[in-house]
Design goal:
By secondary structure, the chain is of the alpha+beta class. Helices cover about 25% and strands about 35% of the residues. It has one domain: Nucleoside Triphosphate Pyrophosphohydrolase, CATH 3.90.79.10. Helix 2 runs antiparallel to helix 3. The model has no long low-confidence stretch (mean pLDDT about 95).
Amino acid sequence: MVYKIPISVLVVIHTPELHVLLLERADRPGFWQSVTGSQDAGETLPQTAQREIGEETGLDAGRYELVDWHKQNQFEIYRHWRSRYAPGVMHNTEHVFSLQVPLPLPVTVAAREHLQYVWLPWREAADKVFSWSNADAIRELPERVLAGRSPAL
């Protein structure tokens, strides 16, 4: 068995108006999240983020600006997902990114991973996700986006 690496990315995909894309997990209906995924051997973190965006949404991340927040979260891996990792691995380090798209785009969900998607205003999205780190990242989004805009905007 090939075990997952306990290093992952969280990518908050959003519009300039701060509508956030959420995906409903196929293995846990009712669990909503942003794009997430584990790093593959030999990948850089931006490569992992771009790959996961493509796999989970069908969007070409290369068409938009992928921003590395240089923020890490460490958390205990949920018990029901630990079998995906080597024996004894109990924690994961997650690296946060964002990707701004011009408007709420249609996406193609990976049927094995997700059931459906929705675009929500950032506050609603933060309340809907199951992961504390995902909620924190979405709540931080307005500050991050405003910091990136020129004063003339």
